[in-house]
Amino acid sequence: MKYGYFDDTAKEYVITDPRTPAKWVNYIGTIRFGGLVDHTGGALLCAGDPALNRILKYIPQLPESEPKGETLYLRIRENGSYKILSPFFTPTLDDYDDFACHVGLGYQRIVSRSHGIRTDVLIFVPNDSPVEIRDIKITNEGNKPVEIDLIPLVEYSHFEALKQFTNADWVPQTMMSEADRDENGLLILKQFPFMRKETKHNFFTSNHPVDSFESDRARFLGNNEYATWQAPEALKKESFSNYEARRGNNIGALLHKLGTLAPGESKRIITQLGQAKAEEVAGLVHRYRDEKNVASAFRELASFWDDYLSKFSCETPDEAFNTTVNVHNPRQCYMTLNWSRYLSLYQLGLGSRGLGFRDSSQDTMGAVAGAPGEVKDLLRKLISVQNPDGSAMHQFFPLSMEATEGDALEEGHKLVYGDDHLWSILAVCAYVKETGDYDFLREKVTFYDKKLPLEKRASAPVLEHLLRALDYTKTHTGMHGLPLLGFADWNDTVNLLGDAESLFNAHLYGKGLLEIMDLLEYLGETAKVTELREDYEVMRKHVNEHAWDGEWFIRYFTEKGEPIGSSSNTEGKIYTNAQSWAVLSGFAEGERVNKALDSVFTHLNTAHGIKLSSPGYTRFDSEIGGVSTYPPGAKENGGIFLHSNPWVMIAETMRGNGDRAYKYYLQINPAAKNDDIDTYEIEPYVYAQNILGDEHPQFGLGRNSWLSGTASWTYQAATQYILGIQPTHQGLRIDPCIPSAWNGFKVRRVFRDATYIIEVDNSENICSGVATVELNGTLLDSNTIPVQEPGSENRVVVTMRKATSNADAPPIARAATVS
Ligand code: IFM
Question: What residues does the Glycosyl hydrolase 94 supersandwich domain cover (predicted)?
Answer without folding.
Answer: 11-290
